[in-house]
Amino acid sequence: MTRQVRGGGPGRAGDSSATTGEQAGTIAGRARRLSRTLGRADLGAVPEARRELRELLRHWGRPGRSEIAELLTSELVTNALVHTDRDAVLTAVLSPGGLRVEVRDFVARRPRLCAPEASDGTHGRGLVLVQNLADAWGVRPHGVGKAVWFELGTEAA
Q1: Radius of gyration of the chain (CA)
Q2: To which H or E segment does residue 3 belong?
Q3: How far apart are alpha carbons 157 and 153 in whole angstroms?
Q4: CB-based contact 116:88 (threshold 8 Å)
Q5: Angle formed by the axes of helices 65-84 and 45-56, to 10°?
Q6: Alpha-carbon torsion 78, 82, 84, 86, what sign?
Q7: Per-residue pLDDT of the chain (157 residues; tens, 9 = 90+)
Q8: Dihedral of CA 93/11/141/86: which sign?
Q9: Eight-class DSSP state of 33
Q10: What is the DSSP string of 85-127?
Q11: Can you give the three-state secondary structure of 119-141, one letter per residue?
C-alpha cells in the first residue's frame, strides 16, 4: 500500500460498500456517505461526481477545503476511467474527523506517481496534485483491482 501523510489527517473514515447513488442524510455526529458507480469510459461522470460531492460537502470545513476535495476527486475519477477502461466505484465518507474519498477500480495495475513534463500538457499531474494537497493518500489492493484514496481534515494543513 502506498501511503503519503501530511499533517494530522482525519484518520480512516472506513471502507464502504454503500449502494450506488446513496447519499445519507445529515445526522449530527455520524458519517454521511456518497457512493456512485462510474460507467466504463464515461467521462461525463466526472462533473456529475463533482456536483454530488459538492452537495455532500455544502457546509463542511474551512473555505477552500471543499474545492480541494472536488479537484482531487476529479483527478481520481478521471484516472480510473481513462486508464482502466472498466467501471469504477466512487465512495466519499464525511465524518466529524474529516473526509475520505476512494475510487475503486477493477484493474490490479497500480498507478504511477511521476513528475509531469512541460510537453505533457495537462497529463500526468493528477497524483502529484493528490500527493501535494491531501492530508493522506494511498493505494490499497482488493480482490480484483485496487482503490486509490485520499483524506482531508476539516482544517487546512
Answers
A1: 15
A2: strand 2-5
A3: 8
A4: no
A5: 150
A6: positive
A7: 433 333 333 433 333 333 333 334 434 556 799 999 988 878 888 999 999 999 999 888 777 899 999 999 999 999 998 888 889 999 999 998 899 999 999 998 888 776 666 565 555 568 899 999 999 999 999 888 999 999 999 775 4
A8: positive
A9: E
A10: -S-EEEEEEEETTEEEEEEEES--PPP---PPPGGGTTTT-HH
A11: HHCCCCCHHHHHHHHCCEEEEEE
Q: Which residues are 103's β-sheet partners?
A: 90, 148
Q: Kindly state the cell numbers that stand for 37.
A: 458507480
Cα–Cα dist 98/72, whole Å: 15
47: its cell numbers: 462533473
